Structures are given as C-alpha cells and as structure tokens.
Amino acid sequence: MTKEEQFWSRFLELAQLQLKDSAYDFFVADSKLVKVDGDTATIYLDGNYKELFWETNLKNALITAGFEIYNTDLKFHFVFEDLPNSHHKDSRNSSLSSSATEPLPKIETGLKAKYTFDNFVQGDGNIWAKAAALAVSENLATTYNPLFIYGGPGLGKTHLLNAIGNQILENIPNARVKYVPAETFINEFLEHLRLGEMKTFKNTYRSLDLLLIDDIQSLGGKKVTTQEEFFNTFNALHSDNKQIVLTSDRSPDHLDSLEERLVTRFKWGLTQNITPPDFETRIAILRNKSEDLDYIFPNDTLEYLAGQFDSNVRDLEGALNDISLMAKVKKLKEITIDVAAEAIRARKNDNTQMLVIPIEKIQDAVGAFYGVSVKEMKGSRRVQNIVLARQVAMYLSREMTDNSLPRIGKEFGGKDHTTVIHAYEKIKSMVETDDNLRLEIQSIKKKLN
Ligand code: ADP
Ligand code: MG
To answer: What separation in Å is there between the alpha carbon of 120 and the centre of ligand 2?
Structure first.
C-alpha cells in the first residue's frame, strides 16, 4: 500500500466507526482521495453540498488519519469534479458520466389539478403569498428561492403550492415537478433506505426542476439523519439553481424542533405569511365556490355564512357542502339564511371556531379592553378613546356576528347603519397598517372565542 492508500483506508475506517451506516453510505462511500501533495490532501466529493457535512463531521477523522500516517497536520482541499491530472483513473469517473446520460426517472407529480391560481380568491390576507407564488411560476429559481409560505390551517397553502406546480406544467410541459408533503418525503426516504434503493430516491429528487414541499413543520421531531436527507436534497437542488417552495404552519423562526441550519436555509429566499381572510374576502370565496353549485345563494345568505366561520376557508367549504347536501335532500333551489343556518348547525356545534356571539358580549369585551363603559360606547361623545372603542366594537360586531347593519346600529344606541359601515371601513383599513391595533383586536377576539 502506498502512503496515500494507507491514509485513505485509515480515514475510511475511522469514518465508518463514527457514522451511522446510512450516513456513511451516503456521504463517504462515493468520495475518494485525489492526491496528497506536500501537506495538502485533495479529496473528491460527488456533490459540493456534501462539503459542509465533511467540514463539520469528518474533519477530526481526517486529521487523525493524517497524523497517524504522515506524522503531520494535513490540510484538506475538496474538489467536486475529477481533476484532469488525477492519477486515480478509477471507475467512478466513467460511472458518473454514464449516469448523466441515463434516462431521468419518471416523476409522479403528486399534483391536484383542481387547485389553480384561477380559483384562488385573492384577499388582503393572502395577496403577497399569491403574488410570490405567481412570480415563482413565471420565473423558476430566478426570483425567490426558496419561497417559504406559512400560515394557519385551511388558509390555502396547499392550494397555492399545487397552483404553482400546475401553472409550471402548463407553461413548460416537460418540466420536472413534484409536490410532496414533508411527511411523505420522509416515509419514501426511509422506505428506499430500507430496500437499499437510495440511488433511485436521490435520482428522483435531485433531477427535479421544481420541488414543492408541504407542511415542513412535520419534519420537526424526526431523527437527525432524516432531517439530514432533506437538508441534502435541499442543498443539491438549491445549488443547482432548482426551485424549491415550502409551506409550514408557522414561521421559520418558530420551527424550534428543526435543525438550525435547515431553518437558516429556509430564510435564504423569500418568506410570505397567509393570514385569515377578512369578512369581504370570505364572502368572495363563498361566492366563488357557490357558483359551481346548482343552488342560488342570495347575498344575505353569503354574508350570513361569512359571519359564521371567521378564520378558516376549509370551514367555509364544509358549510357549502353541508348546505348542498341538505338542499338536495329537500329539493330546494334557493338557499335562504334559515336553510343555511339549519344545514350548518351540526358543523357549528362541533366546531370550536363557531361564532354565536351576542353584540352585548363584544361591547363588554371591547369596553373592558379600552377602559370604556358600554354606556359611553352607546352614547355619542367624541373623545378619542371612546370613539376608538365604539368603532372597534362595531367592526367586530359586523365581522363576528350575523347581525345586519341596521341591527348593529340599533345596539349602539340607535345609530344609523352608515355610521356602522364607516366604523367598519375605518377600522378595517387601520388594521392593515397599524400592527398594534391588529394585535389589540386579535386579543379581544381571543377573549370572545
Ligand atoms: P392549508 O394547506 O393552508 O391548510 P388548503 O390549501 O388545503 O389549506 O385550503 C383549504 C381549502 O380551502 C381548499 O379546498 C382550498 O381550495 C380552499 N381555499 C383556501 N384559500 C382559498 C382561497 N383564497 N380561494 C379559494 N379557495 C381557497
Ligand atoms: Mg395544507
């Protein structure tokens, strides 16, 4: 054995002792020593994204082996393509180039055709997420990479992710696109690992042009080796300029159970938040979805429904399903408020987000929050804090209950319905720019739910 060979086999031995088999197979097995020149060892890795792993996990093994064989502190230099003057004319080189000409594995896109940009209703809460998603589907990997979309359940994250994929395939039919929930990614990875088919797995994922990963928060709590595989896939695609879009139920800063370096990478691109739809957007969504149904939904029914479910689009859809079912059974054509109320009763009863809040309760809660009495709210004094409390209470009465505008006006000491509209519009536009007010209103709402 030459000294180089001794050094390398000693290093491999140490690495094998130190790493789990799967990590060794993946990170070390395909590497090789190019040469040791003076005190510098040049090492070939079959992907530049592996360098970080070597730097963090294998430096000690390299130094130890170097010291044992060369009796000196070696330095290490990583290369990612075979050097032309390499005297290791081994099989690796030819197998690499032949794998490049192998036909690419077929992709199961995993996309649902029904989720498109066309049927995604835009509102204040999702406008930026939608804009970013559109930008990505017009310009893969040149705009935002990765794009990270987060928001609560039922707010359209999965819908947007699919819309990107569907749009890309419409523009570029042979693009390699894959939608996968993070959980499924993990299961596939483990399955391929178990069957010794990691190559297929890697070939599939690393040949993509666009990877859409849903619910990344579910990687939390998984073993480090599994997160590692995702990390590697991410790096391989990203450094290859391939587009990645991720969704999560929380912001990157709150992904506590994920490895820090993963989270760091999520923040390389653009992060967009989706917040719950406001009243008007809920009506627009209901209108949009009810147009596909065989029943007539008058405006006041839509408004009523929009007042019943305030934070989750999935619930709005569920309500429409309940109503369709009942209308079918009862052979109804037009959906009145009464019919709607009856149809959604069961859903509301087992739904913690249901809202049957009397205006009185809203007035109490808002009054307590701002230190204003209900009497003052119902009065007409125009002192600043009273006006604010009054308007917030009107705003919430419109948003959280199914009372008509005149009815709300009446509950506020017999005010005109235009006063209620004015208050509603004013608070609504303030909330958009005033973070404090938004938080105040959120905390009042919490007390009411
Ligand atoms: P998430 O993944 O955020 O939990 P989904 O994307 O699964 O939410 O959305 C739940 C349901 O609500 C889906 O059927 C989706 O089509 C619908 N939806 C959500 N937001 C919108 C929207 N802005 N316009 C139209 N439909 C929407
Ligand atoms: Mg989802």
So the answer is: 14
Fold annotation for 3-79: GMP Synthetase; Chain A, domain 3 (3.30.300)
CATH for 279-349, among 3.40.1360.10, 1.10.8.60, 1.10.230.10, 3.30.465.10?
A: 1.10.8.60
How much distance in Å is there from the Cα of 184 to the middle of ligand 2?
13
Six-digit token pair at 31? 């590497």
Predicted local distance difference test score (pLDDT) of residue 350: 58
Q: Which of 126, 150, 155, 316 best tests ligand 1's pocket when mutated (most atoms within 8 Å of CB)? A: 155
Q: Which burial class, exposed, middle or buried, applies to 244 when counting CB atoms under 10 A from its CB (0-12, 13-18, 19+)?
A: buried
What's residue 151's pLDDT? 94
CB 220 within 8 A of CB 257: yes
Nearest to 360 by CA among 390, 402, 397: 397
Which of 180, 313, 316, 317 to mutate for ligand 1's pocket (most ligand atoms within 8 Å of CB)? Answer: 313
What's the rounded Cα separation, in Å, for the pair 33 and 95?
17
- 126 Cα nearest atom in ligand 1: 23
Claim: this prediction has a pTM higher than 0.70:
no
Using alpha carbons, list the distances in angstroms from residue 178 to 100, 113, 144, 228, 234.
20, 13, 18, 20, 13
Write out pLDDT tens, residues 372-394: 999 999 999 999 999 999 999 99
- Which of 111, 148, 159 best tests ligand 1's pocket when mutated (most atoms within 8 Å of CB)? 159
- pLDDT of res. 317: 94
> Which residues lie with the beta carbon below 6 Å from any ligand 1 atom?
115, 119-121, 126, 151, 153-159, 285, 313-314, 317
Domain ranges of the chain: 3-79, 105-273, 279-349, 359-448
Instruction: Name the closest ligand to CA 314.
Output: 1
CB atoms within 5 A of ion ligand 2 belong to 157-158
Residues of the chain whose pLDDT is less than 50?
83-100, 352-354
| CATH for the stretch 359-448 | 1.10.1750.10
Spatial distance between the Cα atoms of 34 and 27, rounded to a whole number of angstroms: 16
CATH class of 105-273: alpha beta
Q: What is the pLDDT of residues 242-292, one digit of tens each?
A: 999 999 999 998 888 888 888 999 998 999 999 999 999 999 999 999 999
Closest ligand 1 atom number to CA of residue 288:
25
